[in-house]
Specification:
This protein is 39% helix and 26% strand. It is α/β, with parallel strands linked by helices. It has 2 domains: 5-76, Orthogonal Bundle (Helix Hairpins), CATH 1.10.287; 78-156, Transcription elongation factor, GreA/GreB, C-terminal domain (Chitinase A, domain 3, Roll). The strands form 2 sheets. The protein has a 5-stranded mixed β-sheet. Helix 1 runs antiparallel to helix 2 (47-71).
Amino acid sequence: MEEKIPMTTQGYADLTEELKKLKFVERPRIVAAIEEARAHGDLSENAEYHSAREQQSFNEGRILELENALSHAQVIDVTTLSGDKVLFGSTVKLEDSETGVEHTYKIVGKYEANLEKGYISLLSPIAHALIGKQKGDFVDVKTPKGEKSYEILDVQFI
């Protein structure tokens, strides 16, 4: 039995949309670029052809990756969750015990992680440290820059 991949409803929708774009917009664009490059003749020294083939390889690989992820997705609607413990889908407000800087992270599946948005993977060290904890708890996280300590200020499911 293959392992399920936890994913938020928004993450599932985003990946589905990306897959559609790759299949129905990018794939035809790349095929057209390959055909145009072929028309220029000698393929052995045709940089446009090699570039388009490389794009095609990347695109097809990503399509396979997304199809696999979506077929094994365990979609979780975080708005139906509640409680005071940190779980998958939780939005957690933390305070760095050393600097006092506050951070807000949402714990999501590996395909949804995006640090710029504050989305961290369930598989990340900080998420591992947070799971099962609750507001007021302190957690220690081993990072590449050393150990960090945080206080959990709030846990929400939004």
